[in-house]
Structures are given as C-alpha cells and as structure tokens.
Description:
With 635 residues, this protein is α/β, with parallel strands linked by helices. The chain contains 26 helices and nine strands. Strands 2-3-1-9-6-7-8 form a seven-stranded mixed sheet, sandwiched between helices. A two-stranded antiparallel sheet has the order 4-5.
Amino acid sequence: MDRNSSGGDADNFDWDTEDELEIDNYAISSRSGVSLTNGESVLGTTEAGSSADSPNSKLIDHFVGMGFSEELVAKAIEENGEENSNLILEALLQYSASSLASSSNSKLIDHFLGMGFSEEMVIKAIKENGEGNTDTILETLLTYSALEKSAPVQHADSDNYSSDYDGSFLDDFTDIDSSDDTEETLNPDSDEESRLLYLTKMGYSEAEASVAMERCGPDSSIAELTDFICAAQMAKAADALFPVEDRKPFCNDPNYKKRRNAGFDLWKRKKQMKLDKKLLNEDDHAVHLPNPMIGFGVPTEPDQITQRTLPEDAIGPPYFYYENVALAPVGVWSEMSRYLYDVTPEFVDSKYFCAAARKRGYIHNLPIENRYPLLPFPPRTIHEAFPLTKKWWPSWDPRTKLNCLQTCTASAKLTERILKALEAYGDEPPLNVQKYVLDECRKWNLVWVGKNKVAPLEPDEVEMLLGFPRNHTRGGGSSRTERIKSLGNSFQVDTVAYHLSVLKDMFPGGITVLSLFSGIGGAEVALHRLGVPLKAVVSVEKSEVNRNIVRSWWEQTNQRGTLIDIPDVQELNGDRLEQLISRFGGFDLVVGGSPCNNLAGSNRHHRDGLEGKESSLFYDYCRILDLVRLMQRNQ
DNA sequence: TAAACCATGACGGGAGTT
DNA sequence: AACTCCCGTCATGGTTTA
C-alpha cells in the first residue's frame, strides 16, 4: 500500500516527535491574561421532605404522574419508606434503567406510552401485531384512538398544531378512557372561555391558564398556551421535583411532559414532515444553524460573543458538555436542547480549527469568556497539512479544506479508476471528467499523491487533523479500517479544547471527569493538552478497542490520576454513581457525545432520529447527568 | 476469519432565480 | 413565496478478497 501521501514529513511542524514531550509542550501554551470569573453558582438544596399531611396515596400519585407505573412506585416506597422522596425517585430511575436494559418489550411499550397511548392499548396492539413492526403497531393504536375518539395529543409544541391541523388529534392524554365527551363539543381555539376550560381540563390550574392567555395574547392557540405553561413550569419547577400542591400530578414534572412529547415528535416527524418543517421555521424553538458556523466565536475569526445568559436550571456544578452532529434531522436539536435545560446549542465547524470540516453542535454550560486555543495552531489548509500534495495538485481542483472525516474511507481501487479516467488526457481533462473526479475527491476526502493519482487519508493523518497524537489509535490489534472508524466518530480536539479551556484556571488542582461515550478519548486528550490535570476520569465506552486505546494513552502520558472504564452505560445506575461520587468527591465535568448513527446524513438505512437504536442513548446521557446533579446537590 | 470492498439515497441548508 | 439546483453528511449491510 502506498504511504507516499503521508504528511508526517511536514516541515512546518513536527508531528513525529515523541508524544509525551509534544503533549507536554502543548500544555505550556502562552495565554492572554485570564480574569477568572466566578463559575460557581448559588444552588439551594432541594427541599426533599414530603409534607406532613401528605398521605401515601398522594405520594404515589406524584410519582405516577411522572410516568412511573403504580406498581413500581409502590415497590419503591415500600423499599425506601415515605420520608425520603429523593431515595424513592432514585430507586424508580434505577428500576426504569434496568428494565430498559433487560427488556426490549418494555422499551417498545414506553415508546408508545410516550406518544400518549394508554398502557392497556399499547399492550393490546403489541399482542396483535408482534414487536417487529412498530409502524403497524402505531396504525393499530391510531385506529383504537379513532374508535375511542381519543387520539394522542401533543401539548408543549406549537409546531405541530395549527388551525389547519386535524382536530382529531387534539385531545387530553390524561385519561384516554374518560367518560365525558367534552372534547367533542369543545372547540379549544374558539374563544377565551373555551380555551380556559380546555386548559383546566388538561390539568393546568386556572391561574396558570389565565397567566398564559394573558402573556400569549388573545389569538394564541392551545399549543402555544401549553408551551408557555410548560416553559414556565420548567423554569420554576426545575429543581423542585416535588409536589406543588395546586397542580395536577402529570403536570408536575417537566421531564415527564417532555418525554411524552418526545414520542409524539417521532410520529410527527414521520407523518407530518412537510407541515412541521413549515411550522418549525416559525417556531421560536426551532434551532437554526448559524452561518458562518462559529458558535460563540473561534480564534481565527473576528466575531466573538463573550456573554450569554444560561437558563437558571442549567447552571452547574457540574459542568456538562454534550456533542453531536449539527446536521441532524429537523427537530432533533430542539429536542436535545429541551432535555439539557434549554441551553442553546453552540454550532461550530472545525474547519476554523483545522484543515477538515466537522460541523457539530455542542450543548454545554461552560463560561464562554476568556477561551484560548491550543498551541501550536494545527495546519488549517490541505496544503499546510500535507505539503507534499502540492506538487501534484491540479489547478482545476479548488479545494483548500477537506470535508468531514467519516468512518469509512475510499478503497484503493477507486484510486485506480480515477487514474484511468485521467490518464487519457493532459493537464486539462474535459469538464465532465473533472467533475467526476472532483465529486469523488470531495466525497471521499482524497488528496493528490502523484500524477493523476489520488489517495484516501491514512489513519495517522486523520489523527493529526483531529488533534490527536500520532499513532494514538495504533495498537491493540486495531486494523486500519477500525482506526478510521474510531477516528471518524471522534471529537476534533482543538475545537473541543477551545471550549474546555475555561476550565484551566478554575481547576488548578485538577479535574474529575465523567466521560460518557468516550470513544478514543477526545475530551481527555483535549484536557490533557490544555494542561488541566486529570485527577480522575470515569470513562464509559462500549468498544473494547477504544477502551484499550484510551487506557494505552493514559499510561503512555504518565497520568497520575485514576482511570476507570465502564463498558456499558446501563451499568452506570444510581448505586454505581453514588459509589463513584463518594469515592471522588463528585464530578466537575460530565462530557460526552452520544451516538450519531441515527442522526447522520450518511446513514442510508436507519436515519431514525433521536429515537433510533443507537442515538436514543442520548437519553442515557441525560439520565446520568440528572442523577449526578441530583446526588451532588444533596451531598 | 478478518479486513477490505462496494452498492446503497434521503435530507436539509444555502444560493440563486422566478 | 416557491421553485430550482448544488452540495455535503461522526453509515450500514452484504460480498469479495487475502
């Protein structure tokens, strides 16, 4: 195999030096003076006690209202007593996690419950259709609903409800087998009184409904109103997971409401794509990608934003940093934002940091002032990154940046085909040939390594582009294909390091990190290159090869902290987290990028959105982050 | 058997035009 | 507004090769 495309002999700087020395040098980055802002936030501890006059049934109702089954709630109360609601909640979360892990069936049931169907109907539908085809189950459920004149309803999103939206989907999901028929005769958007009545019937208090109607204006739809109320509740009830007495149970917990919406979102995306797109664009919650995609700013561009206001509930500790592909299906980022305390995502294209594009969104609660980049700056054009290619680069190939580094690489045979296509001509092949070659080059990130000869990037070249030490992914019996795949799934280190750089002065004594979906350790490498000591890293990563890579890096860089690796994210339940938190005194940072498989545009087969098989692990990130926050606040 | 190879489009944003 | 065209996208599953 040709290796002559190697950029290793780049003369502008040396990627070949010993890793440790090199990394140590990076750590000594010169920096502008940093005025440390106080990143601490004022956090009241949650009042967790149940009120004295609260009978057992009220407590049960409360948790049932959050979406847990009555059986589980009873069990949790029996095991933990009535006194400590936190313990009960923890137990419930644990049950849910383990039941999700053990039974695909319950996941399926939950999925449809989340859409607002009753458990009874869902079980019946699954029994009739089997577990295999979710679409037929959905059809059946919709049929049931139509029969009962009780289809699911979506409260919090205004984007799937408008005047031309089919009214049959407007219903109250509280009790599907409700005996009264008010829904049929009530036109919720007709006048103020009807809407008020409708909202109270939905379980909102009269006060909430009135305030919402006042704030949203006389022409607001039910969906807008519920959206407003939901937002208000989220802001208010964020920390208080416990009853506000004048609210109906199912409205208490914003996460519950959000989860119900999540299921419906899937249905919505599938059936109402066109309509949604139109409506989403008018929706305040629609996330739009910035152009240029520089987030709050990048070191190489003039526009910088140094101030932002985080939603109160988003403020740490711990700090969190979540990453995923920017070009996810419509609605995914607003959903993720909703789950992550309504923090606005920061979209950044790594082409501003290195020679390859990498459009990613980051949701985090880090300060954004006084960021600084890793030094030295990595090469930012193809020619700088691979000087040897300059000699062979045709004038008709205008690329200066590579496209996104993906998980697959072109075959060596494609090189041959392109060679053959070009050989017949001189310096200026016909336009159609140029287009063919350029298209292939762009699709596969090919670079010129000889006359008429292109080649895909080698793993070590991708390592360099992504900011990893050379040979980072080598070893552990990892093939070229596997290395490319692991790298393709990774962070761009310089980009992430720029965002994490604010931690340097906050944690001079080192940092304790919970790293979910660690992959090949992009976050760890970034922190290390920033010179942030790693006191302890708890790393969750499914792939054994990747775990070996991180472990090997950990040893080779003479880390003095503790590295714990956990293969399965489900293993990280309340118990395990409590152990780890008490052992390390809590986590300072929860970092991770959950799988993008079902979000990425390259996926022909299962681009199913957030509810997809792998991408739904996003909810585990949220689950774990929620648990960490809860536990550390009650310490 | 492990690694390499290859066929497989849809979706969404941006820019321009009508 | 609505239309066109252009372009890029952390991939999967089956088949062939070494």
